[in-house]
């Protein structure tokens, strides 16, 4: 391997040694569901892409295999969150499509501009709530990542997310656009 850096050699070695075990771990995390195997494949690929991007830190890491497994777990969790929120949205959309739009509008007798509602709700969040909103919903950070960022327990992060959701619902119910 002439012209190959030590980091590339390490990355190749890590890939050769751990690719199959990381993939099997991802399969385990999705409970071997046949329809979700693409999540395991994508999560495995993303894990090793992350390893490539973080190779400088990984060189000094005391437990590379543990880092790979934790990263894979975070990638699978993030994919599940995306997958289920997408499925939930599709189900809601399918339910709405079953009824003519005009009958829905007549029943509700309101017309909501959701983009404007989102702007109004986000304006009313304090700085901490807005930061948590961005990290969890926009940047799709896991509970573990958030507990590290905020230096609090996973339970505290979960509680904060619950309170944030509740507060957003309260604001949305108050705001009329």
UniProtKB/TrEMBL annotation:
SUPFAM superfamilies tied to this protein: Sigma2 domain of RNA polymerase sigma factors, Sigma3 and sigma4 domains of RNA polymerase sigma factors
Pfam hit, one: Sigma70_r2
Biological process per Gene Ontology, one example term: DNA-templated transcription initiation
The keyword Transcription belongs to this UniProt entry's keyword annotation: yes
The organism's taxonomic lineage, starting at the top: Bacteria, Bacillati, Bacillota, Bacilli, Bacillales
Keyword check for GTP-binding: no
InterPro entries membership: RNA_pol_sigma-70-like, RNA_pol_sigma-70_dom, RNA_pol_sigma70_r2, RNA_pol_sigma_r2, RNA_pol_sigma_r3/r4-like
Organism the protein comes from: Paenibacillus anaericanus
Domain of life: Bacteria
Protein name: Sigma-70 family RNA polymerase sigma factor
Domain RNA polymerase sigma-70 region intervals: 16-81
Family: Belongs to the sigma-70 factor family. ECF subfamily.
Molecular-function annotations in GO: DNA binding; sigma factor activity
UniProt entry keywords in alphabetical sequence: DNA-binding, Sigma factor, Transcription, Transcription regulation
Gene3D superfamilies per the UniProt record, alphabetical: 1.10.1740.10
